[in-house]
Hints:
The protein is of the alpha/beta class. Among the domains are: 7-134 and 158-192 and 244-258, 3-Layer(aba) Sandwich (Rossmann fold), CATH 3.40.50.150; 263-288; 461-602, no CATH class. 59% of the residues lie in helices and 16% in strands. It is built from 21 helices and 12 strands. The chain has a 7-stranded mixed sheet. The chain has a 5-stranded mixed sheet with strand order 8-9-10-11-12. A hairpin with a 7-residue loop joins strand 9 and strand 10. It is flat. The model is unreliable at 259-273 and 297-301 (pLDDT under 50).
Amino acid sequence: MSADWNPDQYERFRDERSQPFFDLLELTRPVPGGRVIDLGCGTGELTRALHERSRAAETLGIDSSPAMLARAAAFAGGGLRFELADIAGFAPGAPFDLVFSNAALQWLPDHERLLARIAGWVAPGGQLAFQVPANADHPSHTVAHEVAREEPFATALGGYVREWPVLAPERYAELLDGLGFERVHVRLQVYVHRLASTMDVAEWVRGTLLTDYERRLGPELCAAYLARYRERLLAELGERAPYVYTFKRILAAGTRGGAWRAAMMGAMDVTRATVEEFLELLRKDPELRERAREIIVAADWERVDRAIERMAAEIAAFAAETRAHIAEVERTTNTRFNDMTGKFEALRNEMDRRFEATDAKIDALRTDMNQRFEAADAKVEGLRTDMIQRFEAADVKVEGLRTDMNQRFEQVDQRFEQVDQRFEQVDQRFEQVDQRFERVEARLDSIEKRLARVEGELGNLTGGQIEDRLSHEPGKYLGRPYRKVRKIIVSEDAEVDAAIEAGVLSEDEYQDVLRADVVVRATPRRGEGSERVVVVEASKVVDRGDVERAARRAALLGRVWPGTEGAVFGYAITAGARELAEASGVRVLVERTAEETAEEGAA
């Protein structure tokens, strides 16, 4: 995320932008004396509210924008400090009791890895809370990306269009649970902002999303981009005053497991501290004390008594449950400790017994080894005698082997004779292949004659008639360079419809493709690859305009079917058109030149 933010532009809608912050803050609990970090602290005003609400001893706000941190300096002090840092490269030296981020993580990619990294910054029993916009499908965002794809902005941006990394709410819930967080709360909330007019939406987005495009464009192009964005947005939303701007956001929070009891005791300490502070305020402020007395006198004491009794019962139940839980933990711990002590003693006795048994086995093994060595000496002597006898027997076997090898060589000679017979069979097969090639050549001669007749027909047709016949019988006229020719009706093709819905083809581009003379699927005959889509432009005499249309429409359909190629077809082709076709990769399906046609006409 870039650091060149405009704080004035960002804070034009400060009240509307701050509400999600306070909603997120309500999902956290105070951490008295703890450590807190605010990822993407911006101008620091809300970070000050976070620091005071959490009652932390130390709060750190980080942001990558020097302009934002210049504003934040006014709110530093009392344990709150700010630091210039990028979340993507930030590495804290110690964990935090609360990691908080309001509308910042959407600027970083790969949220699954990002959350896993940030979770490591949370201390056991600590909290993680973040809020990210989920409004990428609103025209305020989609129009910004569409304008970025228009010229001259697409070239200036190098084809850059901002990716949206925000996940579905349920995926964040799964990730937090998988990372060991407890009491996970994730919700999708729609905020309703009543703006003065439709154009205020542009000013809202200019303070956030559009900064990503503005910083990549020069001042002149930036102004043109904003003017085009406003024009497109007004056409999309209509001119209304006031305008209700709905904005979806995801709020997520959870407590890292491993410190349940510490968290509960902390909550009890906070409650006690809150009551003590209130009593202290009553002692110091007579007016507040008098107001409290009026409220108490006017209260429904019967209902208050019931509420107090209910609260007392709940507190007693909770205390009893907590004491029972602690007693159960102590009992279980003592039982396990005693069990481990008994097991350790049994293990020591077992080890002593096994060592004694091992010593006895070693003595027995030593005696057995001596006996075995003596037996081995006797065996070696017997083996020497046996080896001498075996060598003598081996000599006899070698002689028999020599005789057997001679017999096998005779069998090899017979096999060679069989191989010669097989070679003769192979020669016969080759003769059969030659005969098949002769039949194929005859077939090709027949095709050439048929194509010659087609060329003769083309000479007697007008350009419109050629287009009509090519459209109705593409296999007949494209049979020389292609095989398996099948016509595609673009207006009825589901893949083209899906491309239009996905924004791969604009409406104007779609209309341009529909004007192609014919679009087919075909396979080149001469080993030029597999089946591909071919856009064919036909004319009596193919000129540069036909080549340009074929190249342009092939490029458009190439977004739907990669590898689509353009081709031109007709009775003749101009020299300029042929040169352009070679330069632009358009296949020429015309042999005759326009100059030859002119000479034949003169003759």
